[in-house]
Design a protein that fits this description.
With 227 residues, this protein is an alpha/beta fold. The protein has one domain: Metallo-dependent phosphatases (Purple Acid Phosphatase, chain A, domain 2, 4-Layer Sandwich). Helices cover 34% and strands 17% of the residues. It has nine helices and ten strands. Helix 3 crosses helix 4. The longest helix has 12 residues, at 101-112. The radius of gyration is 17 Å and the shape is globular.
């Protein structure tokens, strides 16, 4: 039995399925998803419906799922409606609206019950997993972006996050294109970022960058897997 953590998928079902095959994911294993399963890529709703039927998958709430819930709320504000609309929601919303009302309710209920973080002990090591960064409320845990210098506020836990693209953390904006071209020329891709304070798994899925990858880490031995 192995414990896997996967970063932001953003609607890229092909990479998700390729990863499951690559790690030989079985019913005895556990997979924790760090949120942002939906948006940007084409298959967010299909992925949600699939994940909802997988009892050994624990999905955390990401800021994109949080935006979706706010948008679909009968009390949605104009700010909340605009926020999700300008953050790559088009394929997700289109697919959601094609579902029957019963399925739509199941999706909303599922997302509305997603935890914002998960603490887990594996082989004597404790892990705190969250989409954005540890905080005191839902908004902070799904939206906060650390810096390279951010310290882990959770005692005696190794912190694993997503949300903030590794490329955005390791390169200033004016150098990202040149860096991406250099990495692409080498036939390489973005890799999981390790700092003294956290481990970041967001390697750019859902974005139009040639060096993106879906990243996964096995907690049992901290082995890294990429698709």
């Amino acid at each position: 039995m192995a414990h896997y953590v996967m970063g932001d998928i953003h609607g890229e079902a092909d990479r998700f399925h390729a990863m499951l095959e690559k790690i030989r994911f079985s019913e005895e294993d556990t997979l924790i998803l760090l949120g942002d399963v939906i948006d940007r890529g084409p298959d967010g709703i299909a992925l949600l419906l699939e994940i909802m039927e997988m009892p050994n998958v624990i999905m955390l709430l990401g800021n994109h799922e949080h935006m979706m819930l706010q948008y679909l709320s009968p009390d949605a504000t104009s700010t909340e409606i605009r926020r999700w609309s300008r953050n790559g929601n088009a394929p997700t919303l289109a697919a959601y609206l094609k579902q029957k009302a019963k399925v739509q309710r199941r999706i909303r209920t599922y997302l509305g019950t997603r935890p914002t973080h998960l603490e887990l002990e594996v082989n004597g090591s404790r892990y705190y997993m969250v989409h954005g960064f540890p905080g005191d409320n839902v908004h902070d845990e799904v939206w906060t972006r650390p810096t390279m210098e951010s310290e882990n506020p959770i005692p005696d836990c190794r912190l694993i996050i997503g949300h903030t693209k590794v490329l955005s953390m390791i390169q200033p904006e004016e150098k990202r294109i040149a860096y991406a071209m250099e990495v692409e020329d080498k036939g390489e891709h973005l890799e999981i970022l390790h700092t003294p304070g956290f481990v970041n798994l967001d390697c750019g899925c859902g974005y139009d960058i040639p060096i993106k990858a879906l990243a996964c880490i096995r907690l049992d031995d901290m082995n890294e897997i990429y698709v």
